[in-house]
Structure to design on (99 residues):
């Protein structure tokens, strides 16, 4: 079965620290928001975001670089009522992972 997503590693633009791995679905080229359910690594972040420990999107902390503390993204609810990080343009790099 063909995969209908691409895998990207997301890195901090300031210090190049690895932040997370993301499965991007659909044809759009840019990454404007990260759907929590499509964040697949690191494990600690996946568990944190998907265990439903958060009662409200307001409880979710901003996405910061663990190395240099750069502010990378902020939690929000998409038009489709999905929880996402709205990503700050220019503050992260993405790298396509060849599977
Ligand atoms: Zn950084």
């Amino acid at each position: 079965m063909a995969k209908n997503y691409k895998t990207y590693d997301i890195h901090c633009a300031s210090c190049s620290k690895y932040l997370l791995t993301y499965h991007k679905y659909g044809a759009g080229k840019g990454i404007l928001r990260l759907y929590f359910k499509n964040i697949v690594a690191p494990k600690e972040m996946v568990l944190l975001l998907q265990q439903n420990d958060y009662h409200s999107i307001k409880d979710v902390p901003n996405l910061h670089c663990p190395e240099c503390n750069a502010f990378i993204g902020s939690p929000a609810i998409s038009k489709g009522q999905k929880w996402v990080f709205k990503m700050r343009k220019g503050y992260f790099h993405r790298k396509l992972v060849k599977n």
Summary: The chain has one domain: 5-96. The radius of gyration is 13 Å.
